[in-house]
Write a structure and sequence with these properties.
By secondary structure, this protein is α+β, with helices and mostly antiparallel strands. 20% of the residues lie in helices and 36% in strands. It contains three helices and six strands; from the N terminus they run E-H-H-E-E-E-E-E-H. Strands 1, 2, 3, 4, 5 and 6 form a six-stranded antiparallel beta sheet that branches. Strand 5 and strand 6 form a beta hairpin. The longest helix is centred in the N-terminal third of the chain and has 15 residues. The chain is globular, with a radius of gyration of 16 Å.
């Protein structure tokens, strides 16, 4: 079975850069967040609806590595690959490439699914688990931030 890889494209705007036209370091996290949000939209579950039910995804831990700089007007592709999924959490590996397919940034995060009222992990909706599992590759050994 072929593993699906989700990717999301973004343009680098002036607001994403420092005074020299290079993407400000913290904005790579924003590009990754946007890609994860778009990936999760594919569940056909509304994050707004989950929040109304006082449930949602929260970042628990992050690790990133800056490899090269994105610049003003670059066209970025951000991948989103879950490494592990459990009933109330997942680990996601992401990469940011420019229009020349050069790797610029890689990122790992641990995400918990919480009951926001209790502040404790709770099981993800069944549909979310099924959706996420179809993106988990069989071999995740090469999916780590170096």
């Amino acid at each position: 079975m072929e593993t699906k890889v989700f990717s999301h494209n973004s343009r680098v705007y002036y607001e994403d850069t420092d005074a020299g036209g290079i993407v400000y370091y913290a904005n790579y996290l924003k590009f990754c967040e946007r890609a994860r949000t778009e990936w999760l939209r594919g569940m056909n579950l509304s994050q707004c609806k989950m929040l109304e039910e006082k449930k949602g995804f929260v970042i628990r831990k992050i690790k990133g590595s800056y490899i090269s700089s994105a610049r003003l007007d670059d066209y970025l592709t951000v991948t989103c690959i879950p490494k592990k999924v459990k009933f109330a959490s997942l680990e996601v590996y992401q990469q940011v490439f420019n229009q020349n397919q050069e790797l610029l940034f890689e990122f790992e995060c641990s995400i918990a699914f919480l009951d926001m009222e209790k502040g404790k992990p709770c099981p993800m909706p069944k549909e979310a688990l099924e959706y996420i599992k179809q993106f988990v590759p069989q071999d995740v050994s090469n999916l780590e931030v170096k």
